[in-house]
């Protein structure tokens, strides 16, 4: 049985509205990126306490911290970012998750990504070593304009760093927006490393994001192949149906319901049960 999670900040900046909409969809896990118009890593200790109390009171759990770690230029000073990563690890522990989403640094416009390979791996190695020491799991997401945006460079990262504490979060829409066919081209290379899947689709023409199964993201084929191989991890809904930027996305309640329905339709077509059907939220994420 897979676990359905979601970027709740795509629904609203208000925590109660986030939880109300997720409850209506039977979704009890959140990939926590922001609330009250503040990034998760910028929340005060008191704000984090309020979040945890609200989640605990309504039976929600955090599937991953949707951090912005790795979303700086590869030529930016790394020391302040490393300090921010320490905060990310503290937040993950406090919210009861082992998982932190990360990225592999923006490449300067017009530059050859390969020229920065050694520095990317040096920085990611530092993050991975700290995560391992703390018993946490880093989930590298393929994202536009970072070193690990195309499938081959994602594979390069995973071959160098894959471990119990460094795994891959597969995002079909982001591959489409990089001109890569997610199932036909990226999936065969990255399948052994996938431990988490973002449910987001897009079309090649205009790179527009659409509900899962309605674009060129080959989402149904990816899920079918994963389920055949026994995948029982997280499917995290990240709709981006109203707006998207390098650091966040938004859909609103109505479009979030559209995105959730699209995923449920795919799961039904594939005869795949998910945690919300029984009302029994899983307690063993990764």
From TrEMBL:
UniProt feature coiled coil, ranges: none
Keyword Isomerase among UniProt keywords: yes
Keyword Isomerase: yes
Source superkingdom: Bacteria
One Gene Ontology term of the molecular function aspect: isomerase activity
Residue ranges constituting the Xylose isomerase-like TIM barrel domain according to the UniProt record: 24-240
Pfam families: AP_endonuc_2
SUPFAM superfamilies documented for this protein: Xylose isomerase-like
Keywords per UniProt: Isomerase
Gene3D superfamilies: Divalent-metal-dependent TIM barrel enzymes
Xref: InterPro entries: IolE/XylAMocC-like, Xyl_isomerase-like_sf, Xyl_isomerase-like_TIM-brl
Protein name: Sugar phosphate isomerase/epimerase
The organism of origin for this protein: Alicyclobacillus fastidiosus
